[in-house]
UniProtKB/TrEMBL annotation:
Stored InterPro entries: At5g01610-like, DUF538
Name the record gives this protein: Plant/F25P12-18 protein
SUPFAM superfamilies (alphabetical): At5g01610-like (SSF141562)
Amino acid sequence: MSLVTEEIKAKAEYYSGDEICQLKSKELLIEIGMPNGLLPLRDIEECGYVRETGFVWLKQKNSITHKFEKIGRYTTYGTEVTATVEQHKIKKLTGVKSKELLIWLTIGDIYIDDPASGKITFKTPAGLSRTFPVSAFQVEEEVKDGKEANEVKEVNAAVEVKDA
C-alpha cells in the first residue's frame, strides 16, 4: 500500500520521469544539507515534495541494491521510498534497508548532527545506529561540462551582440 495519496500529490511539487526526478532528488538533498549520492535510484517514475510538511517520495520501477564503495556497504531501495525531511535530517524513512553483517536492517533516520564533523549517522527504528564519513555518500558532479557549456553560451551571446 502506497503512503502517497492523491491528496498528498495535490499539495506537492510533483514530477514524473527519470531525468527530472534524478535532478530534483539531488537538488533536494543539497538543499537540506545532505550528501547528493544518498539516493542512488534508477528508473524513477515519479517524485514529489510537500514543503509545508517536509514529506518526500520517490517511486522507481524496480527495487535496487547499491554498494557504497567507500564504506563497502550494500543498501537496498524499494520501489517506493518515502521520508520527512528537514535541514540535515531525513526522518520516518521507508523503503530503505542496509546490510549489516548478514542481516538487512531497516533504516528509519539519517542525520548529520554537526556538519563540521563530516559524519553522517544512520539509525534503525529499533535504535541501533552507525556513523560514517559524509564523503562516502557524496558523488562528484560533472561540473566541468556545465562550465564549458556556460562558456560557450556566453561566447555565443557575445558574438551575437558584436554582430548586432
